[in-house]
Design brief:
Elements: E1 2-5, H1 10-20, E2 23-24, E3 27-31, E4 37-41, E5 49-55, H2 62-78, E6 81-88, H3 107-116, E7 121-125, E8 138-141, H4 144-151, E9 159-162, H5 168-178, E10 181-184, E11 186-189, E12 196-199, E13 210-217, H6 221-232, E14 238-245, H7 251-257, E15 260-266, E16 278-281, H8 284-296
Parallel strand pairs: 1-2, 1-5, 5-6, 6-7, 7-8, 9-10, 9-13, 13-14, 14-15, 15-16
Antiparallel strand pairs: 3-4, 11-12
The protein binds ribose-5-phosphate (R5P).
Length: 297
């Protein structure tokens, strides 16, 4: 078994290769003078390999990472790989999972369709809307349990809260595994201005620590609003766990200003943000489990 690492998952691919006992393919990359991308699987044996795992994450540089992943997949397909597993811990474009305003595309469908071509199985970590994977050759790995477990050292007997109904399964999954209470908030986003508002729900967080669980922190607006609301309801300490910490546009400042004391993220991206409020959880063991599950079928 060999791993072809994309630029956004080179560091984590080393660990995954070690856990799986797989070899790493040396990938040559360059940009042609006209700006086009070139990749070559330099150390792929002439007769291919039984299984090639193409491993890449799609943040940062979503568009070029997507193209790089497609080129790596094609290179594996054309050069004798007998089976191909695509490991993409973070898939970009997944939040445009339906038509919100007339005239829009379903971007998530476009990305999943092109990536599904020619693979035996895809592995994604905590995709925004898992129903998108129905009927497609993909496995969705939840990691909210290990993230909440990582947050437990900062809180005492917390209630696990999803900031919206869409995140409820993540909160429920972690809470069930760890024997904690859980609930969710009602969030609304203005599709034109992007403004988020939280509506109260009948949960008692008074004098309790809270762990908010979400899939993505982009601008931090969702979590900041949720934290403010929970603190206004009497929550003692508010800690956040999220699978994909993009943290754009002053997200950390917003998070701090909202009274959040800790942020635990999964190591799913091609970058690590350095900040004292942040800590990362290694998900390579979970990826190994997913790959082994695929191989055992
Ligand atoms: C939305 O449904 C997602 O689950 C996240 O809550 C959202 O994308 C986070 O974005 P931001 O950090 O910009 O509020």
């Amino acid at each position: 078994m060999l791993i072809a690492p994309g630029s956004n998952f080179t560091r984590q691919s080393l660990e995954l290769a070690r856990l799986l006992g797989a070899g790493l393919i040396d990938v040559e990359r360059k940009i042609f003078p006209d700006g086009e991308m070139y990749v070559r699987l330099k150390s792929l044996p002439g007769d291919g390999a039984d299984t090639v795992i193409v491993a890449n994450s799609m943040y940062p540089n979503q568009d070029s990472s997507l193209l790089e992943t497609l080129l790596l997949l094609n290179a594996a397909q054309k050069n004798g790989a007998k089976s191909i597993i695509l490991v993409t811990p973070y898939l970009a474009y997944m939040r445009q999972d339906k038509i919100f305003l007339h005239g829009e595309p379903v971007s998530a469908e476009v990305v999943l369709n092109i990536l599904s071509h020619g693979i035996n199985k895809g592995v994604v970590v905590d995709v925004h809307n898992p129903s998108l994977l129905e009927g497609k050759p993909w496995i969705n790995m939840l990691v909210s349990d290990i993230l909440v477990e990582g947050a437990l050292k900062h809180v005492s007997k917390p209630v696990v809260i999803a900031p919206d109904k869409g995140a409820l399964e993540r909160a429920k999954y972690a809470a069930a595994k760890l024997g904690l209470d859980f609930d969710y908030l009602i969030k609304e986003r203005d599709r034109v201005t992007g403004e988020v508002s939280i509506k109260p729900r009948s949960i008692s967080v008074e004098n309790r620590d809270v762990v908010i669980v979400d899939d993505i922190i982009s601008t931090g607006g969702t979590l900041a609003e949720a934290a403010r609301f929970l603190i206004s309801q009497g929550a003692r300490r508010v800690v956040v766990v999220a699978t994909h910490g993009l943290l754009v546009g002053g997200a950390l400042r917003k998070i701090r200003d909202a009274g959040i004391s800790r942020v635990v993220l999964a190591d799913t991206l091609g970058l690590i943000h350095e900040d004292p409020i942040l800590e990362y959880v290694n998900i390579a063991p979970r990826l190994r489990e997913a790959v082994e599950e695929v191989l055992s079928r």
